[in-house]
Structure formats: structure tokens, C-alpha cells
Write a structure and sequence with these properties.
Number of strands of chain A: 0
Radius of gyration of chain B: 20 Å
Distance between the termini of chain B: 26 Å
Largest sheet of chain B: none
Number of helices of chain B: 5
Order of helices and strands of chain B: HHHHH
Strand content of chain B: under 5%
Shape of chain A: globular
Distance between the termini of chain A: 43 Å
Helix content of chain A: over 70%
Radius of gyration of chain A: 22 Å
Structural class of chain B: mainly alpha
Oligomer: heterodimer
Largest sheet of chain A: none
Shape of chain B: elongated
Number of strands of chain B: 0
Largest interface: A-B, 72 and 62 residues
Number of helices of chain A: 20
Chain lengths: ~425, ~170
């Protein structure tokens, strides 16, 4: 077999990536090398990256959703929300574990980023759980990481914005499609927590006196209103998801500054700086993918793959099974946005040819890739909670295993039953 | 390196961070203005999208050039974080050199493309596109300089950057 420029490009990405070059740079460098070898003007890399970033308006939701979550975390919105969840589910066995999951489900309704959720909620709840050794720290870290997976599945969702970019599926319907799977994941994690808590006799939280409940609810009200405003805004047809993201960030800022009076200027600066850094990290991956996807397109890789898979006479179900296995393996090794930007676009033409609905496909893919955030050895959420708690990755992974299994059960279910994903979008008029 | 140089470097980084914060704040503010004009005053404005999209482009490339630290970049570090200091040096020299070669070799072509875009202007504000796109040249040059420094550090024995998030302090 002759060595083609494309093969060299792939080998370079893998080698440079494995040797520790940031993935965005690895993709840009390898694409430039390809352009030289294939006789394409190397200025094409600049053209692809600049035009790609300049013309994808939907991507603007990403910095804004990141900012919204960071602003909520500096204000005490998160604390108030946790108090409210304590009232709801604290009195069950393993109460704080349930509080963790439910807080993540509500938080998921305003934030689109799993990392922001793990940091924002974990910052407080890991301390609550580990206090006086009531829960092992590793368990607190594990359930925090697992529960944060729900964040980008319940709308809004940054990965779904990225998927919408590569698939042209509607962001609005993708968001709706994630709702039921997100709630199912939450319930699955609560059942898992309940079983473990009973076996290990984890504590129950003291009941909160009834007279304090109205006050706690009123305190949490501004935080609880945010998902409502966001969803009504977007699905009432008032705002685009991108504008919704801006309004969410604005609301978080106002609520923190005016209602809770807990924001100082240095904090605000820090939050915006953090958001801009997170934006840059993801943006560099997108830039790299823009350059690399040009290479993939002129090499007609998606079409070749479609013919290749066509040769196996795969059914839609068989293809979905293969996709899930492939993405789960990749999710153990690669960062999620990279998979979404590089691998998923190659799969989409085949999915289309097999008659698979692209909203259903997108939600399954996002759920799968989010599970990849907690699967070792490469799981961003595991790194985040390990860094927060200073526990070894190994001990956290051991505690996270039952939650990973629970998530896989949900993934298998939504893959097998597309209605679980498409039911809600169809109520809102999706004709898929 | 002398202390003054390190101090100057820190000062410059903080100013670069100021720019990132200003860019993202501008994006956010203009978004709010846009929503306000469209839905409250019922009088949509066109220039806002151009400002927003330009700030997005700049946040990404400016940040990648000057603000993001080594530990904050997204990378696949299973190998890198598990090898000895000396092996890290070798890896950094290899990846850094390849990056420098690619970015230097493509810089003239990238410059030609960006300066060619002066023939196009944005739809509302009539700003020449080459101004908006100039950040790519800044990005390329900064990355070349940065990786030259990283390769230099790999040779001179300074401690190699840590990438495992579990080992980096808060």
C-alpha cells in the first residue's frame, strides 16, 4: 500500500497528540503538513480556521453558557440551590448523595458544561459529604463526577451545540431530546446511590423543620427560575438558543449581584477570565477540527466509510451498536469535544443513509461521549474531582464504577428505544 | 533568566489576560444590547453580530497565543504524564520542533491570505476583513515564539511543564 499524504497526516496527529502536543495544535500542524504534501496552498489552514470560526454563529452559545455557569458559581446561587435540594431529598438513606444528583439535575437546566457543574456543585457538596468522615471522600468525589455527566444532557448543552454544528440538526430539538435521557440518568444514579448507601449504612440528613422550608425555597427561587426562563425563552420561540445563553448569563449576574449581593469586582474579573480561558481551550479544538475536517472532506473519507459500511449490509440497529462501542472506547482515551468534531462528522453520512434520525443520533452520541468523561484512563471529570479532593484517581474510579454501569444501562435503553429521545421533541412539533 | 525579565513577563501576561476579559465582556454586553433592541424595542440592530463574532474569533486565538497556560490546554497526556523528566524533554523537543516548522513554513501563505482579505468588508460596519483576521498572524507568530521558548527550556534543564490536572495545584 502506498503511503498517501492523508495517512501521514493521521500518523502525525496521533504521534504529536500522544507525545503531548495540545490536540488543537496537533490537528493544525498535521493539516498544514498535509497541505504541503498534497500541493494545496498552505494558507488554506488559515482560511479554514478563520472562516470556520467567523461563520459559525451557533458556536457563540459556548462562551455564553460557560460564562453563565461561572457567574452562578461565584454568586451563592449554587449554595441556595443545594439547601433547597437538602429539603427535597436529604431525608432518604444516603441523603447527601441524592442531594448531589438532584442539584446537578437542576443545575443542568442552566449550565451546559459538565466541568462547570462538577466544580460549582462539587466545591460545596464534597465538603458537606466528607465532613466528620460521614462519607468516604473518594465516594463523594465519584458521585460528584458521575452526577455532573447529566449537565450537558439536560438542556442547555455545549456538546449538543457542537454536534448541531457538524450535523446541521436543530439545536432546539436536540436540547429537548436530551431531557428524558437526562432525567433517566439522574434516577439511575439515585437508585445506585440508594443501594450503596443501604449496604454501607450511609447517614440520613436530619429532617429540616417545616417552618424553615418556605424561607429556603424563597432563597432558592431566583436560582430555580433560571431554567424556567431559559426554556420558555427558547421554546416559546422568543429567543434563539444563543441569545438564551446570553440572557442566562445576564440573569445569573443580576441575581448574584442584586438578590444575593455576593459578587465583588475581583470575583467577577476572575469568573470572566476563567470563562475566556475555557472558551479558548474549546475554541482551539474547534479551530484544529476546522483545519482537519477540510482534509477529511477533500479526501472524501465519510463517503468511503459509507461505502465500506454499506458492504457489510448493516442494519440501523447494528450500526448504532457499533457506534456506541466505538465511541465508548474512544471516550476512554480522548477528550469529548475532539470526538464530536473529528469522529462524529465521519459517521453522520452513514447514519443518514441508514435512515437514522439525526436528533436521536446526536443525543445518543452526546450521552455516550459524556459517559466518556468519567471512564478511565482519560476522563476529564475524574481529573477535576481528583484535583479538588486530592484523592488518587484509582480510588475514585473504583467508587465511580457502579455509576458508570448505571449510565451504560441508560445508554443501552435510549439506543434501543429511540422514542425515549424523540418523544419530547415530537410533542414540540419535531417531524423526525 | 533575571528577575526583571520574569517580572516583565508576568506583567505582560496579566495585560494579555485583561484583553481576554475585555473581549469576552464586550461579547456579553453586545449580546445583551442585541436582545434588548430586538425583543424589547422591537428594533433589531445589525452591527451587533459582527462585533460579537469578531470578539469570539479574537478570544479564541488571542487566548491561545498569550493567555492559556501549558497546563490549561486540552491534550492527550497518558504517555506524557507517565514518563520521566528526561523523556519529557525529548517529547517536547520533537513536538515543539514540528510545530515551529509547520507554522513558520505556512506563515507566508497565511499572511498572503489574511492581507488578501482587505478586498472584503464586513456587511454593516464596513471594516476590512483583514483587520478582523489579523489575529491569526498574531497567533501564528506568538505560537512560534512560545514553542521556541519551550524547546529552549527542554534543552536547558528547566523543569518541564506538568500536565496531569490531578497534580497541578488549584
Amino acid at each position: 500500500m502506498a503511503v498517501t499524504p492523508f495517512m501521514i497526516c493521521i500518523i502525525m496527529i496521533v504521534t504529536l497528540g500522544t507525545f503531548g502536543l495540545p490536540i488543537g495544535h496537533a490537528m493544525i500542524v498535521s493539516s498544514i503538513a498535509y497541505m504541503f504534501m498534497a500541493g494545496v496552498d498552505p494558507g488554506t489552514a488559515a482560511e479554514q480556521i478563520l472562516n470556520g470560526l467567523f461563520n459559525s454563529y451557533v458556536l457563540l452559545a459556548i462562551p455564553l453558557f460557560i460564562l453563565a455557569a461561572d457567574l452562578m458559581n461565584i454568586g451563592s446561587l449554587t449554595d441556595k440551590l443545594l439547601n433547597f435540594c437538602l429539603v427535597l431529598v436529604g431525608r432518604f438513606r444516603g441523603g447527601l448523595g441524592h442531594v448531589n444528583v438532584v442539584a446537578n439535575m437542576i443545575f443542568a437546566g442552566m449550565s451546559g458544561s459538565a466541568i462547570a457543574d462538577a466544580v460549582g456543585i462539587g466545591r460545596i457538596i464534597i465538603g458537606m459529604m466528607a465532613k466528620d468522615g460521614r462519607y468516604p471522600v473518594a465516594y463523594a468525589a465519584a458521585i460528584t463526577a458521575a452526577a455532573a455527566v447529566i449537565g450537558p444532557i439536560i438542556p442547555p448543552s455545549i456538546p449538543m451545540v457542537v454536534y448541531a454544528l457538524v450535523s446541521d440538526a436543530s439545536i432546539g430539538y436536540l436540547f429537548l431530546g436530551g431531557f428524558v435521557p437526562g432525567v433517566m440518568l439522574g434516577l439511575a444514579f439515585m437508585v445506585t446511590n440508594f443501594i450503596i448507601a443501604r449496604k454501607r449504612n450511609y447517614p440520613v440528613e436530619p429532617p429540616i423543620p417545616l417552618r424553615e422550608v418556605p424561607k429556603i425555597t424563597i432563597n432558592a427561587f431566583p436560582a430555580l427560575m433560571l431554567p424556567v426562563i431559559l426554556l420558555f425563552g427558547i421554546y416559546g420561540g422568543v429567543m434563539t438558543p444563543t441569545e438564551g445563553a446570553a440572557v442566562a448569563a445576564f440573569y445569573a449576574l443580576l441575581a448574584s449581584a442584586l438578590l444575593y449581593r455576593s459578587v465583588t469586582l475581583p470575583q467577577l474579573y476572575e469568573a470572566i477570565l476563567n470563562s475566556s480561558k475555557a472558551t479558548t481551550s474549546i475554541g482551539m479544538l474547534i479551530a484544529g477540527a476546522m483545519a482537519f475536517n477540510y482534509v477529511v472532506t477533500i479526501e472524501q473519507i465519510p463517503v468511503s466509510l459509507q461505502h465500506f459500511i454499506g458492504g457489510f449490509q448493516l442494519t440501523a440497529a447494528g450500526f448504532m451498536l457499533l457506534v456506541n462501542l466505538l465511541l465508548l472506547v474512544l471516550g476512554c482515551l480522548l477528550e469529548g469535544t475532539t470526538i464530536l468534531l473529528v469522529v462524529v462528522p465521519i459517521l453522520i453520512p452513514t447514519a443518514k443513509a441508514l435512515g437514522i434520525d439525526l436528533v436521536y443520533f446526536g443525543v445518543v452520541v452526546v450521552v455516550n461521549i459524556m459517559i466518556g468523561l468519567v471512564t478511565p484512563p482519560y476522563g476529564l471529570l475524574l481529573f477535576v474531582v481528583a484535583n479538588m479532593t486530592k484523592q488518587s484517581l484509582g480510588s475514585i474510579v473504583r467508587e465511580a464504577l457502579p455509576f458508570i454501569v448505571a449510565a451504560l444501562v441508560v445508554l443501552a435503553f435510549i439506543t434501543a428505544v429511540p422514542e425515549a429521545v424523540l418523544w419530547l421533541p415530537q410533542i414540540f412539533g419535531y417531524k423526525g | 533568566m533575571s528577575n526583571q525579565l520574569i517580572e516583565a513577563g508576568r506583567w505582560l501576561r496579566r495585560r494579555a489576560e485583561d484583553v481576554s476579559v475585555a473581549l469576552l465582556s464586550t461579547m456579553f454586553a453586545v449580546f445583551i444590547i442585541q436582545v434588548f433592541f430586538r425583543y424589547v424595542l422591537n428594533d433589531p440592530i445589525g452591527w451587533s453580530e459582527e462585533v460579537i463574532i469578531t470578539t469570539w474569533l479574537w478570544v479564541v486565538l488571542w487566548g491561545a497565543a498569550f493567555v492559556l497556560r501549558e497546563s490549561e490546554e486540552i491534550r492527550f497526556d497518558i504517555l506524557y504524564s507517565n514518563v520521566s523528566e528526561n523523556t519529557r524533554r525529548i517529547l517536547n523537543v520533537i513536538t515543539g520542533t514540528v510545530l515551529i516548522l509547520a507554522y513558520v513554513a505556512s506563515l507566508p501563505a497565511a499572511y498572503r491570505y489574511v492581507s488578501f482579505m482587505k478586498v472584503e468588508h464586513s456587511a454593516y460596519l464596513r471594516v476590512p476583513i483583514n483587520w478582523m483576521y489579523s489575529v491569526f498572524i498574531i497567533f501564528s507568530v506568538a505560537c512560534i515564539a512560545r514553542y521556541c521558548y519551550l524547546v529552549y527550556r527542554a534543552f536547558t534543564g528547566a523543569k518541564q511543564p506538568e500536565t496531569d490536572p490531578a497534580k497541578i495545584g488549584d
